């Protein structure tokens, strides 16, 4: 049934490469995006890329990607549906995966596709919804070990999607009762995660004021059966999905700036002359995935440090492989070119930093009594050099 399937992934979003790698191990895959500058990222993995919408007509299945968080405007979605509708072939199966409000697929997407293709949904083309579940930490193998949620506009479409995803989701398939149920479930997943992370951010900042290590508290609380071990993400994206949630939990404060201010305070208490200090920030891009976006909190952190007159040098092991020099106006320094600094901030714990451990800091610190700020608590405390002062949250 799936022998001659060709999949076109529409949109080179953060999750598109993860999806292409997984699908590409089983089916022929091509990625489409009108921005040809994104081609290099897919070329590195041997994945076909095109910026010509006409090539969508060769694919029987179109995976409509988008941002992982509900920031998809209806205008952007309408543009995508119009373009795909103009080029898709009769009999195509379209799978939407980006988070949208319940009813969007059936009330917005299907009418647009019918209008611009001239085909009738359910007869000449078919639509399903499958929430994005391509996680970075589980993207290294050939199989994603996570149960996959799928929904179709009718039973046969749902069965078809189950057969399509089964080879790359060995944890099984869950067929949602309807597309609306799947859309609502995805929003609930995101809301639950972001509310809990926002809560942990507040807890972490409060515990730090009392000199308590957050990860020690989590490790202890996790001994209780049923405890859900969410971790703080102070340099990650501020919750944007529901403005009320962001206002309530985050108080509209920039977490990156708060972290920077706490670091500056600790350095001043240690009698470091701030305006003469050099600080190295390790890690800028989202952790160990193939996303193209930097962590918003790291940008805020760097900006705040610079406003205090501190010389900041930023390096990212993930980008060095691609010879990136500038991200969103922020100049990057190769790791081997970093000058010794009074302090190193480990902002994003990429795998390269995990493997190097404390050896990484031997050359980066100006002397043995310098300061290391481990924001994500990656480094082993029992292996810390004796004279290094370690702060983590």
UniProtKB/TrEMBL annotation:
Glycosyltransferase as UniProt keyword: no
Gene Ontology MF terms in the entry = NAD binding; oxidoreductase activity, acting on the CH-CH group of donors, NAD or NADP as acceptor; oxidoreductase activity, acting on the CH-OH group of donors, NAD or NADP as acceptor
Assigned keywords, A-Z: NAD, Oxidoreductase
Coiled-coil annotated spans: none
Question: Which biological processes are named by the entry's GO terms?
Answer: polysaccharide biosynthetic process
In terms of superkingdom, the source organism counts as Bacteria
Q: Which residues form the UDP-glucose/GDP-mannose dehydrogenase C-terminal domain?
A: 280-381
According to its UniProt record, which protein family does this protein belong to?
A: Belongs to the UDP-glucose/GDP-mannose dehydrogenase family.
Q: What is this protein called?
A: UDP-glucose/GDP-mannose dehydrogenase C-terminal domain-containing protein
Instruction: List the lineage, top down.
Output: Bacteria, Bacillati, Bacillota, Bacilli, Bacillales
């Amino acid at each position: 049934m799936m022998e001659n399937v060709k999949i076109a992934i529409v949109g080179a979003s953060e999750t598109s490469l993860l999806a292409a790698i997984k699908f590409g191990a089983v089916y022929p895959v091509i990625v489409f995006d009108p921005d040809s500058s994104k081609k290099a990222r897919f070329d590195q993995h041997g994945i076909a890329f095109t910026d010509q919408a006409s090539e969508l007509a060769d694919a029987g299945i179109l995976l409509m990607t988008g941002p992982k968080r509900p920031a998809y405007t209806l205008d952007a979605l309408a543009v995508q549906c119009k373009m795909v509708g103009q080029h898709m072939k009769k009999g195509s199966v379209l799978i939407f995966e980006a988070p949208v409000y319940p009813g969007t697929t059936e009330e917005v997407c299907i009418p647009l596709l019918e209008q611009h293709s001239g085909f009738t949904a359910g007869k000449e083309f078919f639509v399903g919804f499958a929430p994005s579940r391509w996680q970075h930490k589980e993207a290294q193998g050939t199989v994603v070990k996570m149960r996959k949620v799928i929904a179709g506009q009718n039973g046969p479409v749902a069965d078809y999607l189950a057969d399509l995803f089964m080879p790359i989701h060995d944890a099984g398939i869950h067929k949602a009762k309807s597309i609306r149920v799947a859309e609502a479930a995805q929003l609930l997943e995101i809301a639950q995660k972001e509310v809990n992370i926002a809560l942990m951010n507040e807890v972490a900042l409060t515990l730090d004021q009392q000199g308590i290590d957050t990860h020690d508290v989590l490790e202890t609380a996790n001994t209780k059966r049923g405890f859900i071990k969410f971790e703080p993400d102070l340099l990650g994206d501020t919750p944007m999905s529901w403005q009320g949630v962001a206002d309530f939990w985050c108080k509209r404060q920039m977490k990156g700036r708060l972290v920077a201010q706490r670091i500056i305070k600790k350095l001043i208490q240690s009698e470091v002359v701030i305006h003469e200090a050099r600080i190295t920030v390790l890690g800028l891009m989202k952790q160990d995935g193939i996303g193209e976006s930097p962590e918003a909190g790291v940008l805020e952190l760097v900006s705040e440090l610079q406003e205090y007159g501190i010389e900041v040098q930023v390096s990212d092991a993930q980008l060095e492989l691609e010879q990136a020099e500038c991200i969103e106006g922020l100049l990057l320094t190769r790791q081997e070119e970093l000058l010794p600094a009074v302090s190193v901030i480990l902002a994003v714990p990429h795998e390269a930093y995990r493997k190097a451990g404390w050896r990484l800091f031997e050359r980066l610190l100006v002397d043995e009594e310098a300061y290391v700020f481990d924001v994500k608590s990656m480094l082993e405390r029992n292996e810390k050099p004796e004279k290094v002062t370690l702060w983590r949250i």
